[in-house]
Amino acid sequence: MKAIIITKPGGPEVLQLADRPIPEYAQNEVLVKVKAAGINRPDVSQRKGHYPPPAWASPDIPGLEIAGVIEAVGSEISNWKIGDSVCALVSGGGYAEYCNVPEGQCLPIPGKLSFIEAASLPETFFTVWNNVFDRGKLRPGESLLVHGGSSGIGVAAIQMAGAMGATVYVTAGSDNKCRFCENLGASRAVNYKTEDFEGALHQLTEGNGIDVILDMIGGDYTPKNIRSLANDGRLILINTMNGKDVAIDLSLVMRKRLSITGSTLRNRDAAFKSDIARNLEKFIWPYLVSGEIKPVVYGVFPASEAAEAHSLMESSEHIGKIILDFGAF
Ligand SMILES: NC(=O)c1ccc[n+]([C@@H]2O[C@H](COP(=O)([O-])OP(=O)(O)OC[C@H]3O[C@@H](n4cnc5c(N)ncnc54)[C@H](OP(=O)(O)O)[C@@H]3O)[C@@H](O)[C@H]2O)c1
């Protein structure tokens, strides 16, 4: 099969098209003929050599999410059959013509979405569900602040939290991105380059603070996040793009009864990911079928142009998701 591999740690140019054997699939796995694969910021970190894949994943084929058609099924599979169209969360190996997936990590393609649109969903929707709803316990009527509102994670979080009855605030790096996030359902987007988000949120919540903050920035944002949380607020970290070492006022954690948590999805086992998949199918997929939640696809590249697609992601120009099209293979 054709695959995009990381030839060595480095810039986008280290992504190269290569021939690889079609992966083996276990008794509890399906083999998917990939039509489209989503790109995520963790793929960029892996390409640079900063985010090694877990032992059970492909060592050099990146890619955490796919959509395609089931080509073969393991002997224990009863929920899927050959010919089913699915999208799926994988631990690596997604930038390839074929990918093996634990059956529980597959989801039906919602409604009439295309393979390209469906490939934009798994990584961000699993991550947001796990962090905002499972760990953050966001409830209807509460408020959520999402940093990086125009990211793939951000556009999923705005829509999922909105559909579940929360008020969503975001930060983003341009007025254009802010307007996009507001059109997608954010009550207010703060351009962090021209406005102090802490002051803006203080005003917007009339000093009451935010119930849940989903943060991928860390670093200098952390003391501001702590000050911006409401009593019993929850800060959830999914990355530390501005740095991992911070000083915070721990007395605020006590006085406001705050919870600080975080997680990484990729290294969790198939049972854990399957549980998230079933919750998504039950609680979020109906909104995708009805069109209340929409995929946000910014750019589509032929798979052979994976390097260009990574360059676009690193420019941070995009809003939403960037997808590789494997339809030509
Ligand atoms: N823990 C997990 O399980 C997990 C899973 C998936 C993703 N993640 C993390 O979630 C984040 C979003 O992922 P994604 O795939 O949605 O990314 P993405 O679409 O590339 O979006 C990242 C956005 O963050 C903003 N940003 C703010 N400060 C930044 C900085 N210092 N460096 C780079 N970008 C910065 C940029 O927009 P502005 O113009 O607004 O600055 C950029 O477009 C990433 O950090 C990723 O590693 C974590």
State the main characteristics.
329 residues, Rossmann fold, 2 domains, 6-stranded parallel sheet, 10 helices, globular, binds NADP nicotinamide-adenine-dinucleotide phosphate
Give the gist of this structure:
The protein is of the alpha/beta class and 329 residues long.
- Overall 3D form: globular
End-to-end C-alpha gap: 9 Å
Query: What is the count of DSSP helices, taking H or I runs of 4+ residues?
Result: 10
Question: What is the string of SSEs from the N terminus onward?
Answer: EEEHEEEEHHEHEHEHEHEHEHEHE
Main sheet record: 7 strands, mixed
- Portion of residues in helices? 25-40%
Mean pLDDT: 97
CATH class category of the largest domain: Alpha Beta
Give me the secondary-structure topology.
Elements: E1 2-6, E2 15-19, E3 29-39, H1 41-47, E4 65-73, E5 85-89, E6 98-102, E7 106-108, H2 115-119, H3 122-135, E8 143-146, H4 152-163, E9 167-172, H5 175-184, E10 188-191, H6 197-204, E11 210-215, H7 221-228, E12 229-237, H8 250-255, E13 259-262, H9 270-290, E14 297-302, H10 306-315, E15 321-325
Parallel strand pairs: 8-9, 8-11, 9-10, 11-12, 12-13, 14-15
Antiparallel strand pairs: 1-2, 3-4, 3-6, 3-15, 4-5, 5-7
Helix pairs in contact: 3-4, 3-9, 6-7
